[in-house]
# Entry
Amino acid sequence: MPNLRIRRWFRVSMRTALVLVTAFCIFLAVKARQIREQKQAVDAIRAVGGRIHFDDQLDPETCSPVTSTWTRRWLNEHVGQDYVAKASLVTLYPTKDATADEQVKLLAGIPYLRNLAIWPGGLGKSTLDSSDPGGLSDEGMRYLAEHLPNLRHLSLSGSTATIQGLKCLEKLEGLESLQVGTFQDKPIAEMQAFLKRNPQIN
# Structure
């Protein structure tokens, strides 16, 4: 009888161990895919002149500087920052030939991104000119709403969007701040209604 109990316990333990190992392998596969997709997105963003800050540089919630731990510094040096950190803030500098609507599609590999700035013509400049071409349109607004569900802070300059594009952002339930340097049309009443429907947005 004791031997039977031991065998049953062993079978249950082996089954549990196999389930745990399988779950762990699935977890590793998901993480590996996320890392690979982020690395591809980061490389593509840098290729068009965009800037990336990671969560060991800026806090994802407040965008304030953080002090990296020695373990993170060691991992960054020996493994690579792109592989051990998450993108915290992305700044895009679209142009007439590489518009914001095209560049935002590079963010598909970073669906957890919380902070995004799109500043046409701002690369290498200390000030922004809202008349620079390449700003985000209604189509770009829709793309952000569909592919960046975790966005918290959005800063736009030179946008060509209309109130219809702005309404797309209502899908972003966690959006807390929105800065729009220019807007294609300025329907004050509709914008006020938008803010009333979304009181969490500053």
